[in-house]
């Protein structure tokens, strides 16, 4: 799946062009308003292709700083899946996924987190959150759920 969580309206045709170029065919997204960010659009697009195309799609989209997106590639026979997340503030994050879509943290990354944290449990939690891409999930969560219900009312703290 390609989830465009927010795109400036003027960028939408360019996003379609970039995704289509990565897929090797023209694509048309069904764009809707993104209620979390005034003036932005959102879209979901199911794609089908060879293993590794998720990376090509994510690479083609990552150059625009005002774009929030998520690309998922399902695992296949003999190949793990992948998940790419992008936000303007954080850039891009990649995680390997298993056949159920769970993020897989490699053994060496866990060992590194344990080494850096030592006996500090709080630091270990921080390192594991980094390995799981928690900051990206936190930033994208409101954008993901904005499409669940068109009657969502967003409140903002002022002052």
Characteristics:
159 residues, seven-stranded antiparallel β-sheet, 5 helices, 7 strands, DUF3145 domain-containing protein, DUF3145
Give your account of this protein's structure.
This protein has 159 residues and is an alpha+beta fold. The chain has one domain. The protein contains five helices and seven strands. A seven-stranded antiparallel β-sheet has the order 2-3-1-4-5-6-7, with helices on both faces. Helix 1 packs antiparallel against helix 2. It is globular. The protein starts with a strand and ends in a 14-residue tail after the last helix. The relative contact order is 0.16. About 3% of the residues have low confidence.
In which order are the strands of the major sheet placed?
2-3-1-4-5-6-7
What structural category arises from helix and sheet content?
A: alpha+beta
Q: How much helix is in the residues? A: 25-40%
The total strand number stands at 7
Radius of gyration: 17 Å
How is the quaternary structure best described?
Answer: single chain
Strand fraction equals: 15-25%
Biggest sheet details:
7 strands, antiparallel
**Mean pLDDT figure:** 89
Number of helices: 5
The outline comes out as globular
Give the SSE string: EHEEHEEEEHHH
Q: How far is the N terminus from the C terminus?
A: 39 Å
Q: What is the number of domains?
A: 1
* Low-confidence residue ranges: 150-154
